Amino acid sequence: MTQNKQEHKQIRIGVLALQGAFQEHIILLNTLPQVSEAVAVRNAQEIAQVDALIIPGGESTTMALIAERSGFWPSLQEYVQTRPTWGTCAGMILLSEKITSGGTLKGDQKLLGGLGISIKRNAFGSQKESFEAGLHIQGLESADRLFPGVFIRAPVIDEILVSDEDSHSVEVLAKLERDYGQTPKGTIVAVKRNHLLGTAFHPELTRDSRMHQYFVEMAQEWIAAQNN
Question: Which of 25, 202, 212, 217 is catalytic?
Answer without folding.
Answer: 202
